Amino acid sequence: MMHLFINALAATAGGGLTYIHNVIPHLASNPDVRVTAAVSSQFHQELQDRPNVKFLQLEIPPLRRFWYEQRELPSVIGSAGANVLLSAGNFALRKSPVTQILLSRNSIYLSRDYYRDLLTRHEWRMWLDTRVRAILAKKSVRWADVTVAPSLAFAEELRCWTGAEVMAIHHGFDRDAFTRDTGNLSAEIQSKLAAAEGSLKLLFVSHYNYYRNFETLLRSLPLLQQQLPQRSVKLLLTCRLEEGKNPGAYHPSPAARLIRELGLSDMVVELGTVPYQQLHRLYAAADIYVTPAYTETFAHPLVEAMASNIPIVASDIAVHREVCQNAALFFDRFSPQGLAKCIIQCASEPNTCKRMVEEGSKRTQDFSWKVHAKQILALAQRLLDSDGRSI
Length: 391
Hints:
Shape: globular
CATH topology of the largest domain: Rossmann fold
Strand content: 5-15%
CATH superfamily of the largest domain: Glycogen Phosphorylase B
Largest sheet: 7 strands, parallel
Mean pLDDT: 92
CATH architecture of the largest domain: 3-Layer(aba) Sandwich
Helix content: 40-55%
């Protein structure tokens, strides 16, 4: 029997949480696989206990996580009796006691735009920290037996960056699981959505960080209002632009200041964090999904938006084009004017929106968490059959 150990200690927000939420149930459904998952105690509260899954709740401060993984986690894996390690947090173990698959899904280490952005913001410490982490992430690709990327575009970036072979296995989607929860959004969020009724509602699902490029989105709003003078426009954000209200060390105060300077207080609706299980209700309340991110590895909200039958306006990067194909309009990632133009096209051309929605509905059928889990397990089995050598 395969005993898969998942190192999910780095799954604290965004795509990491989405991945673990969706993959573990499919891994657990295989009677020939046992799973041990190392997770934070806080994250464990969101996971459902399953018969053949054991959760190890570990409280490791973020600054100590890498050293803990390298020095102490190998013995934890050995004690668990696992024979395959799935490293789900971008960094591999240098000396894994078992066959190791690395999931690499952080594109900021490769992004020139991100490094320029940090320098522009005078984030010297973050710039240096990212450079150091990039060195470790690059080495990790060679420490692992196999590295897996969530998209073809990001796999190609990793190959060019490291010179190593990288597999692409698309992340998945499960429409039934995504829409299963019947609970209501919080009273506060429902009230804010009710107040936005009748407006052109733009939705951006993300906690605040720099590479999601919030500022370009905010700068597009006055242009939209100028060109749609007879219609109210509301931007719905699943975060709060306040210090201490978002994961990581990103400072949202410049974005909050930009809102004040541009007079956008009535246009920006800060909903705060929305539980993953209830996101489908938020998509259903929106008219257009927007994302100005300048770097990505997969972008789960794009698939969620396509499954929710709303048109998409996305920055023109390779990953967005790969995921959406013909289900989105694309704009230059740093152009507020281009973003506003695409949104206006969506708002004024019903046939364009209808075509994108139809294309998106078809495209979501190409993504499956069940298939993803099956491919990961097949890869792990091939590694075991080859005595752990790279394949």
